[in-house]
Amino acid sequence: MESSKTTADSEDLRQRITLLRNEIRGHNYRYYTLDAPQITDAEYDLLLRELDSLESELGEPVPDDSPTRIVGAPPSATFTSRVHGEPLLSLANAFDEEEVEAFVHRAAEGLGDVELSFISEPKIDGLAVNLRYEQGVLVVAATRGDGISGEDVTDNVRTIAGIPWHLKTNGDLTLPPVLEVRGEVYMSRRSFAALNEQRDAEGQPPFANPRNAAAGSLRQLDARVTAQRKLGFFAYGVGLGGRALASSQSELLILLQGFGFAAQQTEMASSVAELLEGYHRLLEQRPNLAYEIDGIVYKLDSYELQERLGAVARSPRWAIAHKFPAEEVTTSVRDIIWQVGRTGVITPVADMEPVAVGGVVVSRATLHNIDELQRKQVYTGATVVVRRAGDVIPEVVRTLNVDDSARKPVIPDECPVCGASVFRIEGEVAIRCSGGLSCSAQLKERLRHFVSRGAMDIEGMGDKLVARLVDEGMLKSIADVYELDYAQLAGWQGVGEKKITNLQAALEVSKQRPLARFLHALGIRHVGSATGASLASHFGNLDAVMAADQESLLAVPDIGPEVAASICSFFGEQHNRDVIHRLLRAGVEPPAAQVAATGHPLAGKTVVLTGSFEAVNRRVAQEKLRLFGAKPTGSVSAKTDLVIAGEKAGSKLTKARELGIEIAGEAELLAWLNWQ
Ligand SMILES: NC(=O)c1ccc[n+]([C@@H]2O[C@H](COP(=O)([O-])OP(=O)(O)OC[C@H]3O[C@@H](n4cnc5c(N)ncnc54)[C@H](O)[C@@H]3O)[C@@H](O)[C@H]2O)c1
Ligand SMILES: [Zn+2]
C-alpha cells in the first residue's frame, strides 16, 4: 500500500515538473530570443526556484536540458552562431541574507582555513557578451546564448562607444594571442525612456525594461539601428587567455580599465556583515544610478581560491548574485476607484491585491487619467505589472492579460462623492466634478492644501481632523479655518485640551506666513510655490496682486498667458474675494514682500557667501541678494560667478582661487545690499 502511494505521489510530482519545465522554456524563449517577456523577473525566478525544489524532492537525476541546468537559450538561427573559447556561465542567486550567509559558509567550508576576501560589484541589468580579441584587436563579439555558443553581433558591438576596437596597452604588457573579455551591454534609463517614447509614437510595442531593450537593440540585423540606441558597456570578467593576466578579480578589473573598458564601482569585504553593508549602501544609491541594476554580485577575489571551488552545472561556486527587491511585480486589479482632487479633477486609481514591490507593500496606483486607463486596459480583474522604483509613487506599467472576466470600468457621469454632474474642459482629458466647494471631496483637498507644510503650515491640523471638520459641517471654506468654534471640538476622540491649545497657537502663528506662501495656499490653478514667490516679489503686497490685470501679470518673470489668465479669473470671482476678505478680517496678514529690483549688478549671477561678516548676518545677506535677483548657492564650482568672502573664509575661498573665480569682500557686499 505504502509504496503505491509513493509511486502515485512521485507520478504527480513528475507531471508538475514536466509542466513547469515547459512553461519555463516558453518564458526563456520569449525573454532571450524575442526580447519580450510575458512575466516579471521576480515571477520567473519563483518558477525556477519551484522547479529546483521539486526536482530535489523527486530525488532523481536531473536531465541536462532542464531549465535548472542550462544557461539562457541557444543562439537564434537568425544570427551566425559562435562557439565561445570558454563557456559563459550564469550566477547563482541569493534572495535574502540567510542565503548570503550560506554562500559564505559553503565557501569557507570548501576552502578550509583561509582568509576570505570578496569583491562586490553592482549587478547591472543588461545582457552578457563575449568579446574575442586577437593580438589586441576585436574580431568577434557574441551574445551569451546558451553559454557554449552565442549569436554573432560583431558589427553591432562595434557601434558601442564603450567597447574598444583595439586594447590599449602601453607596451609593458604582452597580450595573449587570444583574449576573451566579458561584460554587460546595457541601456541607460534615459535612453530607454526615449526609445519607448519613440516606439510609442511609431505605434510599436514598448520594451518591457532596459534589459530587454538592450538585448533587442544589440540583436539587430542592421548595425545602424544598434548605433542609434546608445548602448553602454561594463567589463567584469575574462575567458580564454585571461586568467594568466591577473591573480585576482580586483587586479583584473584594474587591468581591464587600462585596456580602455569602463568598470563599475566595487568594494572589498571580508565578512557577511561587510557584504550586507555594501548591499544596503548600493540599494540606497540604486534609484540615482543612470542605469538599472537588479542586485549586487559577490565574488571571491582570489583566482586560486576560485579555482579550488570550481563550478556547478550553470554557475560558479565562488560567486553569487544577491538580488534587490523587485521594482516590478504583477498583481491583479480589484477595483477602479475614482478620486476627486482639489480642483475637482476626478482621477482613476487602481485598487490592487496588496503586493511587495521595491521594498514596500502597495495596493494603490494612480492612473492619471481616463486615456491612460484605457490605453493600458487597467480593468477590474486584469493582471497588471506594477512598478515602484526608489521613492517613486507606484505605477501600473502595463496590463499582462485581460481575460473575459475582467470588467471595463464605467466612466462616472456624476461625482462619486457629491453626486454633482461631471464635465470635461475642451482639449483636456481630465473629467471634473462640477460641484465646486459644495463637493466635500474638493473642499477637503483644498483645505488640506491650505494648511499643508509649504502653504499656511498649520501644525496639528492633519488630514483626519480636516476630514472630520468638513463632515461635521464646521469647515465649509478655507476662511472657516480661522473662525473655528473650539467648544465644539471638546470631547472629540484624539482632540484633548492640549491639542486644542496647540492648534490655536499654530493658527495664530500661521497668520503671518509670507505672501508667497499665502498665494500658494489659496490653491489658484497653476500657482504653485514658485509662482507664488514670483508674484510676491514682483508685486510686494496682496492688494497689488489682486488688482493686477493680465498685462501686468505677464510682466512677471516665469508667468505665461495661461497662468496669468488663471490668476485674473481667480481674483475676478466675487466669492474668492469674499473668502480672502474674511481671512484678512480674521487677522491673516501676510507681511509685504520686498519688491525685486531689476538692474542690480548681481542679478542673474550665481554667488557664494562664505565666512562671517561683521555688519550683516550671512543668511540675511543671502536672502536680500536673492530679492535683488542673485542666485546664492552653497558650494563653489565652475558655475559660480562670484565668491563673497568674510572673516575666516576657508576651503570655499581656496577653491574659488583655484578656479580663478572673482572674489569680493564685505565692503562690496554692503554696497550691493544697499543698492537702490
Ligand atoms: N521574465 C522572464 O520571462 C524571464 C525569462 C528568463 C530569464 N529571466 C530573468 O533573467 C535572469 C536570469 O538570467 P541569467 O541567467 O542571465 O542570470 P542573471 O541575470 O540572474 O545572472 C547572470 C548574469 O548577470 C550578469 N551580470 C551583471 N553584472 C555582473 C557582474 N558584475 N559579474 C558577473 N555577471 C554580471 C551577466 O550577464 C550574467 O550572465 C533572471 O533575473 C530572470 O528573472 C526572466
Ligand atoms: Zn464632487
Automatic annotation (TrEMBL):
It comes from the Bacteria. Its EC number is 6.5.1.2. It catalyses: NAD(+) + (deoxyribonucleotide)n-3'-hydroxyl + 5'-phospho-(deoxyribonucleotide)m = (deoxyribonucleotide)n+m + AMP + beta-nicotinamide D-nucleotide. Signal peptide: none annotated. Keywords: DNA damage, DNA repair, DNA replication, Ligase, Magnesium, Manganese, Metal-binding, NAD, Zinc. GO terms for molecular function: DNA binding; DNA ligase (NAD+) activity; metal ion binding. Zn(2+) binds at C415, C418, C433, C439. GO terms for cellular component: cytosol. It is an enzyme of class 6 (ligase). SUPFAM superfamilies: BRCT domain, DNA ligase/mRNA capping enzyme, catalytic domain, Nucleic acid-binding proteins, RuvA domain 2-like. One of its GO terms (biological process) is DNA repair. NAD(+) binds at D41, A42, E43, Y44, D45, S90, L91, E121, R144, E184, K299, K323. InterPro entries: BRCT_dom, BRCT_dom_sf, DisA/LigA_HHH, DNA_ligase, DNA_ligase_AS, DNA_ligase_CS, DNAligase_adenylation, DNAligase_N. Residues 597-676 form the BRCT domain. The active site is at K123. Its cofactor is Mg(2+); Mn(2+). DNA ligase that catalyzes the formation of phosphodiester linkages between 5'-phosphoryl and 3'-hydroxyl groups in double-stranded DNA using NAD as a coenzyme and as the energy source for the reaction. It is essential for DNA replication and repair of damaged DNA. Belongs to the NAD-dependent DNA ligase family. LigA subfamily. This is DNA ligase. The gene is ligA.
